[in-house]
Design brief:
Elements lengths: L1 H24 L10 E6 L2 E2 L4 E7 L8 E5 L2 E2 L1 E5 L3 E5 L7 E7 L2 E10 L5 E5 L3 E5 L3 E3 L2 E5 L7 E4 L5 E3 L4 E4 L3 E9 L2 E10 L2 E9 L4 E8 L2 E4 L9 E5 L2 E7 L8 E5 L2 E6 L6 E10 L2 E10 L2 E8 L2 E4 L7 E9 L2 E10 L1 E8 L2 E4 L6 E8 L5 E7 L2 E6 L2 E5 L7 E9 L2 E8 L4 E6 L2 E7 L7 E6 L2 E10 L4 E10 L4 E6 L8 E8 L1
Parallel strand pairs: 2-9, 11-18
Antiparallel strand pairs: 1-3, 3-7, 4-5, 4-8, 6-7, 8-9, 10-13, 12-16, 14-17, 15-16, 17-18, 19-20, 19-46, 20-21, 22-23, 23-24, 24-25, 26-27, 27-28, 28-29, 30-31, 31-32, 32-33, 34-35, 35-36, 36-37, 38-39, 39-40, 40-41, 42-43, 43-44, 44-45
Length: 507
């Protein structure tokens, strides 16, 4: 009996093994392990939405998973056996999400493709008007999809204006430009008009002339940039920045002070060094050029500084001074004088000397280089106001009797504009092409004058004597290009003290 039972068990076991092997070798297709979608999130969104799909039997290699929304194939960004991330593609429309792996496909629920919310951008003004170096604000309002995004601002012409990330506009020069704000795919613009600004450097007397303080006028508004005794102030503008330089008469020796936007920026020299004095400033590509003089052991030497680094222009032991500078196309032109038996006028170009006079008491005060690279120098030869072109006398403007000099010169549209002084009569003068077109009583301030030409106007800064108040008033005269007086601007001090203009820029 036991033998029969054992035999029967053996036969059953053998049959089970055979049956099992047969089933593994011929699997039922319905029982293969294809992809299965459990869920996805979000259930809707616009093109570009990232969708997270969970399930099982996904291929860990992203490229082996074919995912569609309706009939549109989506981009699979990453995958593992239980998770897939896709991005809703361009052209997708509402439809069911399906996943295919190795020919096996599973279809899940419907993903709704929505319209992407647009971004709307508006500005609080369509136009804005400023003067050079003035600031204004353009406010932007953003709604829609990009409401939380950063706005990008730009100016079509940064020689006219620049704009920061907050929409703050700074006018850098006369003209017109478009200020544009952009966010997402929306943009809005405003037209900015910049009118020329008038900038004047000089000084204002204090305590009935006891001392002076360096002063800058911007469109008629004065700013005293020093509280220490300081006088002639020379100015320059580059981009959104106004530079000014002067000498301060404090304790010890006199250093050169450089201000940027009315804040002390640099000091050239120290109380332990020799006395220095600036006579002109230009700023080109961020390089601050200053010409002037330094006194060593009682002798004046012509000096030139670039960002505080000095260059000696005159020979060691030879008295000299640098009176005006002009930088053009990388070349440095400096007007000055040297003492050899008498003061002789000359100018330097990149350190090379060009003599204007020899053994005739003379001096220079200003230099200008035109588009043809011709050099014009203002000064005097003997007691006669003189303008040189290159090394030749272009105009002798004296009368042979009084002591005169030209103090500034500019060439515009082939016309030579110059200002100067008659020291004998204390008159200031304005010439065009060697012809006197205007003069005024300046009293003790007659020696101060400067000139700037902008578009169709000539601007002259100087000093006018007020006989009723017994004081000198900083003044700007505006002419047309033919010398017709258009306007006179009074920059006199609020107090009874005198004020003097020594330099001007219109930009």
């Amino acid at each position: 009996m036991r033998k029969i039972i054992l035999g029967t068990s053996f036969v059953l076991s053998f049959c089970l093994v055979i049956f099992s092997c047969t089933k593994d070798e011929n699997p039922d297709p319905s029982e293969q392990q294809g992809p299965k979608i459990s869920s996805f999130s979000p259930l809707s969104g616009p093109v570009g939405t990232n969708v997270f799909i969970t399930g099982k039997n996904f291929d860990p290699k992203a490229a082996n998973n074919v995912v569609k929304i309706g009939e549109t194939k989506a981009t699979v960004t990453s995958a593992n056996a239980t998770e897939i991330f896709i991005t809703v593609p361009e052209g997708a429309t509402t439809g069911k999400i399906s996943i295919s792996v190795n020919g096996n496909t599973d279809t899940g629920g419907t993903f709704t493709v929505t319209q992407q919310e647009s971004t709307a951008l508006s500005l609080d003004k369509e136009t804005l008007e400023l003067r050079t170096l003035e600031e204004g604000i353009i406010a932007a309002t953003v709604t829609g999809a990009g409401a939380e995004d950063q706005i990008t601002w730009g100016s079509d012409d940064e020689n006219v204006a620049i704009v920061d990330a907050e929409g703050r506009v700074t006018a850098t020069g006369a003209g017109t430009t478009t200020i544009t704000a952009t966010v997402d795919n929306a943009s809005a613009s405003a037209i900015l008009t910049v009118n020329p600004g008038i900038f004047v450097g000089g000084y204002t007397e204090k305590n009935n002339g006891e001392y002076g303080v360096a002063t800058v006028w911007q469109n008629g508004f004065s700013q005293e940039i020093s509280q220490i005794s300081s006088y002639d102030t020379y100015i320059a503008i580059e981009g959104p920045n106004l530079y000014a330089t002067h000498v301060e008469y404090g304790e010890g020796t006199r250093p050169i002070k450089v201000y940027k936007n009315n804040t002390l920026f640099e000091t050239i020299g120290s109380p332990e060094e020799n006395n220095k004095a600036p006579k002109g400033i230009q700023v080109i590509d961020g390089q601050i050029h200053i010409c002037g003089l330094e006194v060593t052991n009682g002798t004046q030497y012509a000096k030139y500084w670039v960002n505080g680094e000095e260059t000696l222009l005159s020979e060691e032991g030879q008295p000299a001074s640098a009176q005006g500078a002009y930088v053009k196309d990388g070349h440095i032109y400096i007007a000055g004088r040297v003492y050899t038996n008498t003061h002789n006028a000359l100018y330097w170009v990149d350190g090379n000397t060009y003599d204007l006079t020899e053994n005739v008491s003379s001096n220079t005060y200003d230099i200008f280089v035109d588009d043809n690279n011709d050099v014009y120098v203002a000064g005097h030869m003997g007691s006669e106001a003189t303008i040189w072109k290159n090394t030749d006398v272009l105009y002798d403007l004296g009368d042979g009797i009084n002591s005169t000099a030209t103090k500034s010169v500019v060439v515009h549209d082939n016309k030579v504009y110059a200002t100067g002084v008659d020291w004998t009569s204390n008159m200031s003068k304005f010439w065009i092409d060697g012809q006197l077109v205007h003069e005024w009583q300046a009293g003790g301030g007659a020696g101060y004058s400067d000139i700037s030409v902008h578009e169709d106007k000539v601007y002259v800064a100087g000093c006018k004597y007020d006989q009723n108040m017994n004081r000198h008033n900083a003044t700007v005269w505006i002419y047309d290009l033919n010398g017709q007086l258009l306007e006179e601007l009074d920059y006199s001090a609020v107090s009874t003290d005198s004020s003097y203009a020594t330099s001007i820029i219109v930009k």
